[in-house]
Amino acid sequence: MGIEGGNTSSKSGNVDKFLSPPPGFEGCSKSVKVDKLLSPPPGFEGVNRSSKSGNVDKFLSPPPGFEGVNRSSKSGNVDKFLSPPPGFESQARFVLRKVQEKTNGFRPGDADSFQKLVNSRPWIVHDHTTPSSGVLKPTKPQVHPRRLPRVSKKVVLEEAPVFNPTEKEYNDTLSYIASLRDISEPHGICCVVPPPSWDPPCLLGERKIWEGSRFFTQVQIFDGVQTEDPKIKKETDADSDDDDTFHKAKFCRTELGNEYTLETFKNFADSYLESHFRVKEKVLASMYSSPSVDAWPTVADVEKEFRKLLVNPFVELGVLYGNNIDTKTFGSGFPLSGSSESCKYKTSGWNLNNTAKLPGSLLTFDDCESVCVPRLSVGMCLSSQLWKSEKERLYSLCYLHTGAPRVWYSVAGCHRYKFKAFMESFVPKVSGEQSKRSYDSVMAMSPYALHMEGIPVTRCVQNRGQYVILFPGTYYSAVDCGFNCLEIANFATLDWLPHKEIDALQNQEKKRKSLLSYDKVLFGAASEAVKCLKEYSLTKKETSGNMRWFNACGKEGMFSNTVKSRVKKEKSRVQYLSGPLKPQRMKESFDDVSKRACCVCFVDLHLSAVQCSCSADRYSCLSHMKNLCACPYDKKSFLYRYTIDELNILAEALEQRKLSCMFKWGNIDGNYCASPAIRSSQPGGDKGKTTDEVMQDVETGGKEQMKARGKVRSIIEIMNVKEENDNESGPVDPKPLF
């Protein structure tokens, strides 16, 4: 034992035949005859062995991954059996060699026969074509629309939060909505149930509007499954499976319908609801002599039917829908000023005619009727609002005046890009016409399918007399459970500014014109903030308006940092402005047109612009100055509203809350001392005159006007000395400002 591999000095060589080496020593050098019986251990088959017999290499094969290694074998025949490892073949040469070998047997006109032959060879790469010239050209792979996952009937969506404010909380609309943001914004939607005392009269039921006001409807047609947009022609998918049609996306066509009043539309909606849901119950009741069923379908019944409509390819339906009805011409459901005896509902912030222009809403700084005027929505059973997002990513406040409930489905703004990528994956962008189209506005996508793809969807049921709040960037869809009338209004608070900044940049990149001017809203709000901060510094009155801006400004304030960032970007653009342009401050006539836009990217030109003498009404932004015209630089002018030094004063007034900078900006911002005073945003606010009102009164004539100017100058000088002593900042310019 243990000496099997030893060198035995036996006279008889046959002893070695019965001896076997111990484990691990099988490859030891032994006599030639023994080598014939020995095989290399696993993993060592390719080791170069010093065997006298060169025939051993013929039976050796290299280990996996080493087939292409250059071996110094005496016999050159081994390389004939070696092939390169997987992944190291030259694919292009392989395809070219095969094509050349096969084309030798075909004539130039046998392209179809040759293509069939190539397709029958799985080793040929089919991304290459063989034209008559013989040169291989790559072709684009065919992109087919993806298919929906099969949705389980047990999927349950998350419910939206519902709030019941007290009478005191309900009085301040925007402050209460701001308190709901942390809880509701991750869902994108929430429901507010007003206190029992809130019961505004619905003016839509008055005879003048109910029977007299007319509106055009839209016909929503769900005509089976479509794998493509009907407006865009594209080849059908030859590899699709007809039995798998439940997995394809479904689209809804919209056509212009007839004109209706609210009375005639309700009659049509009720008759449709009865014929669609109650025919079966009446037939069964007559067959079994049971009393007729008078109960209307529940919300669950309508949702079940709507789910079938979106998923089942054999369900076809057409309904009417009144959408985006302008209340300025049709009439609002809320009482307007002077149209009702109740002053409570006319002045309330929950009256949607007042919501857009409430103190604290940034829409007060840009008068755009398309977003500031409320709009009506009139629905019937199974009429739906397909997936969309609010314009300019604004807040949306919806009130259900009368009728059946509406079911909302929302995808929060934090999942916005994942939602858009999922929707666009069903219609590949194969043409420029398709890329300009928004798929989320016409695709009838089931919210349950989105949930199956990992996109959180929130469900919210809105009943009569309740409000629904949609947060910035939210995508939403809705279905009506019967005839109803909703009124919708937009508003914007300070936390909306980052959403609008992103929207403005995307519009500029895609060369789309914005409805709202980001710079006009931002710097209009900045001037309002300076007024409130100045009033608070002088009077210490903690009104809701003053404290709103005080909390948003400062070194760590969100609003002051937003203004500072915008000033920094403008400074960079002006600094690297190419060419010696003549600077010129914007005249009042520049604002005669509601919104000046760049002729190239359509970005708003509120802060700065470039103009050429060759065209008086043509402007460009600083980035597209070269695209304005071919004229030399000396014929172009650089138009600006504020200088960079003036914008730095504004940023310092907001960030440092320096009173001297506030007075300086007041002088810069167009005769600020004569502007109307800041009043409290609440009804019955602070009485008595503020600092601005005192200045306006004393500036009514002669000596009193000079005294007022002297007071302002003395205040600035006192504040400059105080700030220098406190070392709040560097030295302040002591030059007189008035």
UniProtKB/TrEMBL annotation:
Gene3D superfamilies: Cupin
InterPro entries referenced in this protein's UniProt entry, alphabetically: JmjC_dom (IPR003347), JmjN (IPR003349), Znf_C5HC2 (IPR004198)
Region (Disordered): 1-22, 37-83
Segments forming domain JmjC: 347-508
Biased composition (Polar residues): 1-13
Superkingdom of source: Eukaryota
Pfam families per the UniProt record, alphabetical: JmjC (PF02373), JmjN (PF02375), zf-C5HC2 (PF02928)
Annotated Gene Ontology cellular component terms: chromatin; nucleus
Name by which UniProt lists this protein: JmjC domain-containing protein
